[in-house]
Amino acid sequence: MKYIPESFKKPFVDWLAFSLEYKKESFDWIKRTFGEVMIPFEKGMFGYSEAYQTTTQALIAHSPDKPQNRIHVSLSSGALFRISENNSVQEIVASAIRLGGKFSRIDIAKDDYDGFLDMDEIFQKLSLGHVGSRLRTFVEYRGNQETQTIRSHKAFNSSIEEKKRHGHTIYVGDMKNGRVFVRIYDKEGQTGKGYDHWVRVEFQLRHEAADIYCNPSIYIDENGEITKKRKDSKRISVFEEAEIPKSLSSDFANRTFSKTAYYYLKFLEPAFKSRKFKDSNILFPKHKRHWFPCTWWTDFLETYEGESIGLPKNETGLEEIKSWALNSTSGADYMLSSIYGEAWTKEKEKTGKEKFEKNKKYQMIIANHITREGAEV
Using CA atoms, how far apart are residues 169 and 10, in angstroms rounded to an integer? Predict the structure, then answer.
């Protein structure tokens, strides 16, 4: 069985995109946090005249002649992983808000390595309508490189439409136009890293849903009274205004994957009631509000329940290298140590040191680790 670090099982942000006010403080923070310009894009990107990728793979775009269009920042899973040694996602979000940040996308995810989630059972629950959800449609992409099938529903418990395609992924919600949708997919089948079981559940929030999730706000009228959003109302950030009672809303630091997932999607077990009909008792389904959540769904969500959302860990970093060493070389190392003893240990350390000195990536990992350990002392 392949070794799986506990950090791999914790919820994390897999994508984050936002815009900042066009000012020197914003560019200074981008440089401190995401590094120097590494790859410039001469033709710009996303409608901005200038764009570049930083040393941590963050994508930055802006138009000097149109500062009103702000500065676009896009952080992929790889970029988020590369800044995770020195930053938390809560710090990134808080800093962005201070610089006038407006959030356009956030993906929050959690991986199942323990076998809680079964793709076929999930599809069956969706097909039968055994779900409680604010989302109304779903589609499944399943197959291999030669034979693929798409099964889609315009609504839960509707007829199935089949087409051909690749992969094994279930989308819940409107992928094209919805503010929120869920992606559940076989990550092991996608990557082939050798795990016995690896299914990822990912919630993608876009546009206003992402902005409210990262920077919860209320609206007040000219008298300072809480009101609905309208043209003459003023938006007040919960994060920035300490006077706002926390009971009204919660800032991003208190967001959790389990609460978010349970809010948008519940897989349910039907409940029945017995009624007498002539000489027999007949079972009738109760209203869906009386159904019970599936234990496999709640067990999956309750793992690290209440823990803040973190940054990606299952990348080729310290934990991944440790996992690879334990699974791929520990047996041979034990055998050689048993036969050659201290001579093998010295030879291994000598060769390992030579390879380490040629590997810039390993040097960066150990430097970041030492820096982090020093900061925690």
Answer: 21
